[in-house]
Amino acid sequence: MTSQQPLHIHILGICGTFMGGLALIARELGYTVSGSDQNVYPPMSTQLEEQGIRLMNGYQAANLDCRPDLVVIGNALSRGNPEVEAVLNRNLPYISGPQWLAEHVLQKRWVLAVAGTHGKTTTTSMLSWILEFNGFKPGFLIGGIPLNFGISARLGESDFFVIEADEYDCAFFDKRSKFVHYRPRTAILNNLEYDHADIFENLDAIKKQFHHLVRTVPSEGLVIAPSCEQHIAEVLEMGCWTPMVKTAIGAEADWQAELIKADGSCFNVHFAGTDQGTVTWELTGQHNVYNALSALAAARHIGILPQDAIAALHQFQNVKRRMEVIVKTNGLTVYDDFAHHPTAIKTTLDGLRKQVGKEKILAIVEPRSNTMRLGVHTQSLAESLSEADQAVVYQPENLGWDLRQLLQYANNIQLCTDLEAIIQTIKAEAGGTCHILLMSNGSFGGIYQRLKTEL
C-alpha cells in the first residue's frame, strides 16, 4: 500500500451484501475499515466482525468522529440521511463502492462479470469455485455467501477476479448501473426482466444500461448468453463488438445441456457438438442448468477444460439462502431461499416440484423488494406460486400494497399479517411429509432463527 492511499475507510451501508464484500477486500488490502448500517444482523455482521471490522448500528454524524480518510457510500443511502449530510458538511472525501472497487482492485485484472435479473449470485459462486478447484485462486465479490468458501469476497492471488455485476445504481451521486465500472473481459448475461421499479422507469431503461455494459467488453473478450433470452438478444442487437457464445437446453447452441433428470440434478454437457461430460449435483431447476452452462463457458474462456470445470461442479455446494435446508425433521423439510422476483419464485418452485413429485409444498413469501412493494408484479407473483399446494404471502404493516389483489389470480394463496401465525402454520405441518419453502431477500422478521429453535 503506497503512502498516497487512504488508511482508514468508513463504509455507509456496510451490511449490504455488496458493501460487506467490499469491506472484506479493503481489510485484506491492509486498510482500517469501519462502517455503519441500520440493519446489522447475521450472516454479514458476523462475517465482518470476525475480520476485525468495527460496526456501528444506525446512521449518525458521530460515527464520523473517527475522521476516516475516505467514506464509501452505498446506494441505499440518500440525501437527508444524517451521516450522509455530515460527510458533505464536513467536506470528507467520498466515493461509490463500484468506483472504489474499479480503481483499487479491478484495474489490470481479468474481470469475469455475471449480469442478469436472476442467477447472478449462484453463477458467480459456481464460476469462482470452478476457478478455485482448478488452482486459479481467483478474487471474487459475490452477493451472498457461497458455501464452498464461507465468505462473500476476497482479493485472490491471481490475475482473475469474478464479480456479481448488478444493474442497480451506484450511489445517490452516481445513477449509473454498478456494472458499468467493472469493464469485464468475460461477460455473462444470464437474462433480463423488469425489476428495480424504484429506479428504472421501464424495461427499455434497463436494456440501455445492459448495453452500456456490452460496450465496455473488449473485442478480444467474450459475451455469454442463453439463446432463449429475447431481451438479451435485443440488447446485443443494439451493437456488440465482442465474440459471443450461446447456451441452450435441448436445442442448438454453442453450449448445450441434455437433461437426464427432469429436475436438472443430472445433465449431459455438449460444446461445439462434442460431448464434454455429465454434471451430477444437488442443485435443481433448469435455471441452474443455464447457470452452469454459462459458468462452464466462462471458465473455458480463461483456459479451463470443460471436463475439469464439470469436475468442480460435482463439488459445488451452492450459496447460503439458495434452497438451503435449515430444518429437516420428521418428514418436514424447511428451505431458505432468496427468491423475490416472480420468475425466480416460479423456477425455484418448479425445480422443487420436479424433485419431490406429489409431496406437499408450502410456499411462504415475503414480498420485500422495492419492485414488489410497488405492486408491479401482482398477477405474475400470484401465478408464480402455482406449483405450491398452499402459499402464504406475508403482509407487514408498512408494505404499502394491498395484497388482496393477489387473490383474484390464484386460489391457493392465503394472506397473513402476523409472523407468529405463519410459524404456527409451519409447525402444524410437523409429523407429515411436507416441503416448506421460505422466500425473502431480507431477514423475514427473524423467522429463520425461530424455526431452527422451535422445530
UniProtKB/TrEMBL annotation:
Domain named Mur ligase central: residues: 114-299
Swiss-Prot/TrEMBL keywords: ATP-binding, Cell cycle, Cell division, Cell shape, Cell wall biogenesis/degradation, Ligase, Magnesium, Membrane, Nucleotide-binding, Peptidoglycan synthesis, Transmembrane, Transmembrane helix
Family: Belongs to the MurCDEF family. Mpl subfamily.
Stored InterPro entries: Mpl (IPR005757), Mur-like_cat_sf (IPR036565), Mur_ligase_C (IPR004101), Mur_ligase_C_dom_sf (IPR036615), Mur_ligase_cen (IPR013221), Mur_ligase_N (IPR000713), MurCDEF_pg_biosynth (IPR050061)
PANTHER family named in the record: UDP-N-ACETYLMURAMATE--L-ALANINE LIGASE-RELATED, UDP-N-ACETYLMURAMATE--L-ALANYL-GAMMA-D-GLUTAMYL-MESO-2,6-DIAMINOHEPTANDIOATE LIGASE
Transmembrane segments: 7-26
Organism: Methylomonas methanica (strain DSM 25384 / MC09)
GO biological process: cell division; cell wall organization; peptidoglycan biosynthetic process; peptidoglycan turnover; regulation of cell shape
Domain Mur ligase C-terminal residue range list: 321-442
Entry binding sites for ATP: G116, T117, H118, G119, K120, T121, T122
Protein's name according to its UniProt entry: UDP-N-acetylmuramate--L-alanyl-gamma-D-glutamyl-meso-2,6-diaminoheptandioate ligase
Keyword Nucleus among UniProt keywords: no
HAMAP family noted in UniProt: Mpl
Residues covered by the Mur ligase N-terminal catalytic domain: 8-108
Keyword Methyltransferase: no
